[in-house]
Amino acid sequence: MKRTVIAQQGEAKIFRIDALPKGMQTRTPERNAEGHAIISHSESGHHHVIANAEVMERIDNVPAGMAILYAIVENPTALRQDAASPHEQIDLEPGLYEFRVSREFDVFAEQIRRVAD
After folding, report:
1. Could you tell me the mean pLDDT of each successive run of 10 residues in the chain, 117 residues long?
2. How many Cα atoms within 13 Å fall on the side-chain side of residue 43?
3. Which range marks the domain in which residue 54 is found?
4. By C-alpha distance, which of 75, 76, 33, 31 is closest to 55?
5. Based on the structure, what is the number of domains in the chain?
6. What is the pLDDT of residue 75?
7. What is the pTM of this model?
8. Cα-flanking dihedrals φ and ψ of residue 89, to 5°?
């Protein structure tokens, strides 16, 4: 699978891909109050979301503390943050996208966890 980095918003890195991984196991991601798929959560409750796309979260072969989501975008949409002072939105043209939510190692708790934005 060919993967090209196109942007990063907070802890979510966005890749344009040419095909979905074969045989992966997925689930439907959580949604916010407007019904938009949540790509990543923020400690302040302001999520990174995408609307008007088929979004799935991968549940197999995902490193500890990381999240990997895929979106099938048929019409132009955007990844945005649902905050009063959000990050600048990232426009997405029709195509396939992979979102990887970063992780970090907390040396004090000795654990891997998702990066908090």
Report:
1. 85 93 95 91 79 96 89 96 76 96 65 57
2. 7
3. 3-114
4. 31
5. 1
6. 97
7. 0.83
8. -70, 155
